[in-house]
Amino acid sequence: MDRSPKRRRSPFIRLLSPLRDFLAAEASGAILLAVAALAALVWANSPWRDSYEQLWTSCAAISVAGHSLDLDLRHWINDGLMTVFFLVVGLEIKRELTQGHLAGRRAAMLPIAAAIGGMVVPALIYLAIAGGTAPRGWAIPMATDIALAVGVLAVARNRIPASLRSYLLGLAIVDDIGAIVIIAAVYSTGVRWGWLAAALVGLAVTAAVRWFGVFSTPVYVVLGVVVWYGLLEAGIHPTLAGVAMGLLAPAVPRLRAELVDVDELTNLSDVVAAHSTSELAKHSVSVVEWLQHVLHPWTSYLIVPAFALANSGIQLSGNGVSAALRSPITWGVFAGLVVGKPIGVVLATRLATRSGIADVPEGATRRQVLGIGAAAGIGFTVALFITELAFTDPAQQSNAKLAILIASVLAAAVSIALLCFKTAQPTVPSTGDPEQRAAHSLGRSASNPVVTEP
Fold it and tell me: Of 82, 228, 280, 446, which residue is 20 to 30 A from 36 by alpha carbon distance?
């Protein structure tokens, strides 16, 4: 009996599947993220509220060769640990561009269009409401929290087609690219060109070391720290160092698949064999995939929850909530996430499919596409991150954060309701005119545009 298929689908091989690893970590990490945010809210409004700010504003300094870096704990998390988060984002962008949902032009067009619509409309809504008061916050409602959005899909996983998961993942990746560009272009001010040049030299050396085939992890860690410190001193947000290093990671395995012996890859008979298996597995996948596999659990289960704990502690007093309800910032962020995101995603999706440049996700209905748009309105992690960059006034930060929290909860509830509502799945006709069948595959027929509704 041939057992080769089982070997190829062994748990060890499945563990290395980047998409499955990514989605699994995001879905379960969303629970920790929500718990951390709730804990921060409870802590900041408890009798021990003073200890919350005292902890995150306590300072720690590092001195190396006469250079001292003194940051408070919140900034060590926001500027330091979140660099690892953005490294994973950079790795995922690289994988999607080379092998994933954004690799082919037609496959990429729908999530790209949906993401652009889901960024432009919320920004316009924010500016219409709060542009005269606090225009720097226009990018806050543009963000999508992929961890919580994927967590929502996990709740509805038995009621939606698999194509919608790929659609949301591609949308969120393009959304992350947009957020990275905005952080670099808008929220990095007062550039010190000497330090920027040092960071660019670090990136050039990284590219050269990679070209010469050096795969030593400590070398890249040192170079990454050099780039990070150069950007920090240059006045450019240092988390962009993580994105840049992720994009420079090789996306091609060091060993070709035909040279990998499946029997050796599953040999765990003793310590030596297990070590050889580990090395063989590491070389049989790309550096991008391996680093995602290693780092993504750390970001999902530790770094992002720590970020939420450090930044979600809003003191909810009667006067504070009343002031927030009167603030254009609050309503601009709230409306941008809850209303702007789904409208932008749905309109851009309809435009892309009606124009024929992209296909509707296979098996999806209008309601489910709207549910994905609502899930994209869960703008927690990156929205909080941009809030810290956009506003220096604590009152403005609190108003924006309160809007983000309420909007994210409401967007999640609306998305679950839309995705879990039982809908009739469209079917492709097996007979009939070829043009009609082709039109149906694009989500429309001669008598009914887009997709069938129940």
Answer: 228
Residue 200 within a domain: no
Give the pTM: 0.75
SS3 state of residue 321: helix
d(CA 244, CA 184): 12
DSSP strand E in 251-377: where? none
Residue 278 within any structural domain of the chain: no
pLDDT at 345: 95
Determine the number of helices (DSSP H) and then strands (DSSP E) in the chain: 23, 2
- Three-class SS state of 67: strand
The answer for residues whose C-beta is within 8 angstroms of residue 207's C-beta and 6 or more apart is: 248
Non-local (6+) Cβ contacts of 204 within 8 A are none
Q: How many domains does the chain have?
A: 1
Measured N-to-C along each axis, helices 193-211 and 217-234 cross at an angle, to the nearest 10 degrees, of 160
What 3-state DSSP class applies to 63?
Answer: strand
Distance in angstroms (rounded) separating the CA atoms of residues 242 and 86: 5
**Which pair of structure tokens corresponds to residue 123?**
């920004």
CA 73 from centroid of its chain's CA atoms: 23
DSSP string, 397-425: HHHHHHHHHHHHHHHHHHHHHHHHS--PP
Dist CA 311 CA 308 (whole Å) = 5
Q: Look up the CATH number of the domain holding residue 177.
A: 1.20.1530.10
Helices (H), 57-192: 73-75, 82-98, 105-130, 146-155, 162-185
**Helix axis angle, 105-130 relative to 328-335, nearest 10°?**
160
Give me the domain span that covers residue 339.
18-188+237-251+286-424+435-441
Q: Note whether residue 7 is domain-resident.
A: no
Answer whether residue 454 is part of any domain. Answer: no
Q: Looking at residue 284, what is its pLDDT? A: 60
